[in-house]
Amino acid sequence: MDPAQFWSTGDYAVVGDLWSAPGRELAAALPARGHDVIDLATGTGATAIAAARHQARSVVGVDVARPLLEVARHRARTAGVDVTWLEADMASVPWPSGSADLVTSTFGLIFAAEPQVALTEARRLTRPGGRIVFTSWSGTGLFGRIRQTLAPYFPDAPEPWHETREDIVSVTGPDTKVTEQVFTMTVASPERFVDLMHRHSAPIIRGAHAMGDRWPRARAQLVDLVRAAGQENGSEFRIPVGYLVTTLEV
Ligand SMILES: C[S@@+](CC[C@H](N)C(=O)[O-])C[C@H]1O[C@@H](n2cnc3c(N)ncnc32)[C@H](O)[C@@H]1O
User: Fold this and answer.
1) For burial by CB atoms within 10 Å, which of 36, 51, 83, 118 has the most?
2) pLDDT at position 125, please?
3) Which atom of ligand 1 is nearest to the CA of 90?
4) How far is the CA of 135 from the centre of ligand 1 (A)?
5) Closest CA relative to residue 136, chosen from 113, 158, 174, 167
6) What is the reported pLDDT for 31?
7) Which CATH number, 3.30.70.920, 1.10.150.130, 2.60.120.260, 3.40.50.150, labels domain 3-249?
8) How many helices and strands (H and E) does the chain possess?
9) Measured on CA atoms in the order 220, 222, 227, 232, is the torsion positive or negative?
10) Ramachandran region of residue 68, left (φ > 0), alpha (ψ -120 to 50) or beta?
11) Which residues line ligand 1 (CB under 6 A)?
12) Hey, where are the domains in the chain?
């Protein structure tokens, strides 16, 4: 399916906000300050806006899904930061070569139909001495385990390339740094989280639709998984979520 149509399913902002901490932390840690930044598959712009807030010299946010970019544009205006939003496929970005010190992508580049093509484009956009930094869900973290829980329902689905250091390096090459990180995701309850994903996360909406009457069983498995992965904290439920940060020097 066309990625713009796919990612416009549901209201991504609702679920994307649950996992926006890694992007905000990335913008602070890199740091983005003083750099020209391009954020690929920016979605609702959390990482791009964080880079602008951390005084990047310039920020471009690229995404294929127009409704998500509209949210991003509105949020940047509200935050009072300047970001250029480009509606484009990350495999072919209409922006000059060597124009960024930093090309970032939080949980976005991993969805490229052809990762090698997206990486080649990311390299083209990066000037010599710059870096490409992207995040992915680790196989041992919550989202890796959600995928693994649903995998038996989709025996023909391709294996992801971004859940382990070894798999990432096999795509990106040996000069790659991969670090494991964890952030805490706060939700109302395991049930509310799974139902929120079912309403607003495009992969889960589409997956549940394809499952038909098998969805209630899958939902119960996901609720059990989430419950075992976190703990209650007053009226909230907190889950430590593992992810990987990959850095390529250009
Ligand atoms: C899981 S979301 C991540 C969004 C955002 N980076 C974040 O951290 O919340 C994946 C994003 O990849 C975008 N995307 C998927 N395929 C794309 C493509 N070929 N070109 C550009 N963006 C794409 C989707 O529109 C969506 O915004």
Assistant:
1) 51
2) 98
3) 20
4) 12
5) 167
6) 87
7) 3.40.50.150
8) 11, 8
9) negative
10) alpha
11) 3, 7, 16, 23, 41-43, 46-47, 63-65, 68, 89-91, 106-108, 111-112
12) 3-249
Closest CA to 181 of 93, 246, 103, 97: 246
Residue type at 155 in one-letter notation: P
The identity of residue 6, as a single letter, is F
The pLDDT tens digits for 179-236 are 999 999 999 999 999 999 999 999 999 999 999 999 999 999 999 999 999 999 999 9
The pTM is what?
0.96
Report, as ranges of residue numbers, the positions in the chain whose pLDDT lies below 50: none
Quickly count: other Cβ atoms within 10 Å of residue 175's Cβ: 10
Q: How would you classify the pairing of strands 58-63 and 36-40?
A: parallel
